[in-house]
Amino acid sequence: MQQLILPILLASFWTVCTGTGDWCYQSQFTCEHQCKVPDEWSHVNSNCGGKQQSPINIVTRKTLKDENLTPLQFTNYQQSFKGTIKNNGHSVQVGVSHLSTISGGDLPAVYKALQFHLHWGNNGGPGSEHTIDGEQYPMELHIVHMKQHYTDLTTALADPEGVAVLGFFYEKSNSANRKYEPIISALQSIKATNANTSLLPISMAQLIPSEKNLTSYYRYKGSLTTPGCTESVIWTVFETPIPLSMDQLKAFSDIKFHDGKPMVRTFRPVQPLNGRQVFRSGSAMTLASSALLGAAITMALGLSQHN
Ligand SMILES: *[C@@H]1O[C@H](CO)[C@@H](O)[C@H](O)[C@H]1NC(C)=O
Ligand SMILES: *[C@@H]1O[C@H](CO)[C@@H](O)[C@H](O)[C@H]1NC(C)=O
Ligand SMILES: [Zn+2]
Prior knowledge:
Elements: H1 2-17, H2 41-44, E1 57-58, E2 64-65, E3 72-75, E4 84-87, E5 92-95, E6 101-104, E7 111-120, E8 131-132, E9 135-136, E10 139-147, H3 153-157, E11 163-173, H4 181-187, E12 196-198, E13 217-222, E14 233-238, E15 242-245, H5 246-250, E16 279-280, H6 286-306
The structure holds 2-acetamido-2-deoxy-beta-D-glucopyranose (2 copies) and zinc ion (ZN).
One 2-acetamido-2-deoxy-beta-D-glucopyranose binds near residues 212, 213 and 240.
GO cellular component, one term: plasma membrane
Protein name: Carbonic anhydrase
Keywords: Cell membrane, Disulfide bond, Glycoprotein, GPI-anchor, Lipoprotein, Lyase, Membrane, Metal-binding, Signal, Zinc
């Protein structure tokens, strides 16, 4: 009798714990809260099982330098606006209503900004979606753009190059980043899912590194990192991270999922490259190459001294 009961018991647990319903991050999954974790997103939308998915791990020594990846042109990124920040149940998102665009850097068109949102870890722990040589940063900013002539994202997503997302990493710093105070202080007002609040005026330029620090980036063809996972995204992932203090990073873990649990570890795991090439801009990996140059000079000097 007992020999029979155990497998039945296990089988019923298995059924209870297999995700049904809405998609979620791995951190949200409990037997009580049934949801589809990233490994099951292909059952939410078959695109999520596609061959050009995001995020990816960028292996820098396998990237190919592309001289066409010149600095991007940012238009109206300096403009201050009074945005609304919203807890949408899986991130915090700010809509961009004024016309601000990116172009150049081998993008096939001019793209206008629609919204930006973030992906983060637990109390400042690993939380970025993209990783560089296996390193996961504490947070990642995505600024979502679509080709300027489209009027809605759905239409843009039907174009294989319709969407351009800029990705920025964050790094822990010893001092608070004052430019982020409007965002950080607003988080306390949007802890509950679907809550929103208005931001003090901010510009997108104040949230990202200065333009001279945006010349090093990676480029590849990928997808949205949440369902429907549409493969219509030209990704630009910048090398220079944005500094935030530990307290500022931790403030994001005060946000709650709809069930009241802390909204943490809101990232999709990295996806297979499936033969895709990742390109790097002319000046990506400048730190590594200048170190090599320095070593070469030192060696040459050392050799000449002995001659
Ligand atoms: C913000 O929340 C209010 C209700 O509190 C709602 O009426 C409004 O549409 C929301 N705005 C956005 C942008 O979600
Ligand atoms: C990039 O930013 C760092 C600080 O994060 C700064 O030390 C460095 O000088 C900047 N590099 C350039 C090329 O401006
Ligand atoms: Zn994102």
